[in-house]
Design a protein that fits this description.
- The protein is α/β, with parallel strands linked by helices.
- It has a single domain, classed as NAD(P)-binding Rossmann-like Domain (Rossmann fold, 3-Layer(aba) Sandwich).
- It contains 6 helices and 6 strands.
Length: 114
Amino acid sequence: MDPKYIVKKIGVIGNGGWGTTLALLLHKKGYEVTLWGANASYVDCLKEKRENIKFLKGFPIPSGISITSDISPGLKDSHLVVSATPTPYLRTVLMKFKDVFFSRDTNRQRYQRD
């Protein structure tokens, strides 16, 4: 396999039960994981307690998993991004990332809705 296609950094969008579970499993497999959540105050709680007490109680979040509510730092450098966002919020959440994932050149125009 060509080294430029090796995935090492994975971003998980959504810090509910499903997103946290994915982050834990990916971290356990040796990936560098960034877990993103929309609610900054709950993200602060996750960072402080290192446990998702609301959605996945009893499963500690290792210090190797980065937790953030910022849009670009950890996710912009990810080789792969996984969305664990509930369907009713998917469009709103992903629109926050459009400038991160699509440059202002032809890629953005290709995916722009008419």
